[in-house]
Amino acid sequence: MASTLNGGCLCGAIRYTIGVPVTELRACHCTSCQKVSGAGGSVNALLASKDFHLVKGTLKRHSVTADSGRILHRYFCGDCGCHIYSHREISPERMVVRAGTIENAPPMKVFAHIWTKSARNWDAIDPAAQQISGQPD
Q1: How many Cα neighbours within 13 Å face the side chain of 75?
Q2: How many independent structural domains does the chain possess?
Q3: Sequence-separated contacts (24+) of 55-64 with Cβ below 8 Å
């Protein structure tokens, strides 16, 4: 496994590194993630904000009130619109990076699905994975 993970946006204007191994992912099926992705939700790597390093570009931020009622800050490329990460206003020390933006990702598996109560009926959820109907603590 690579010691440093590299990632970025669709157009290449944004580049980042992650300095810790990421082995588990969490899928979010909230309505906000559905709209941002244009799909059934988002798949995210959970990590400490200190382990994420923006090395190129400037991200734009859009803040929303999430289904949990908390303020969520989403960061994305202002040129291509690719979403890179998000974090809750009350916990900026933790973030979720969109797994699809990691370019040299090791084998990973979705270990949990959150906001399953708002999952689309056409979105496949692995029955073997943990399922949480709303926001975990």
Answers
A1: 23
A2: 1
A3: 55/15, 55/16, 55/17, 56/8, 56/13, 56/14, 56/15, 56/16, 57/9, 57/13, 57/14, 57/15, 59/14, 59/84, 63/89, 64/32
Domain that holds residue 83: 5-132
- In-domain check, residue 52: yes
125 assigned to some structural domain: yes
Domain membership of residue 137 (yes or no) is no
| pTM given for the model | 0.89
pLDDT tens-digit readout, 53-109: 999 999 999 998 877 788 999 999 999 999 999 999 999 999 999 999 999 888 899
Contact 101, 8 (CB under 8 A): yes
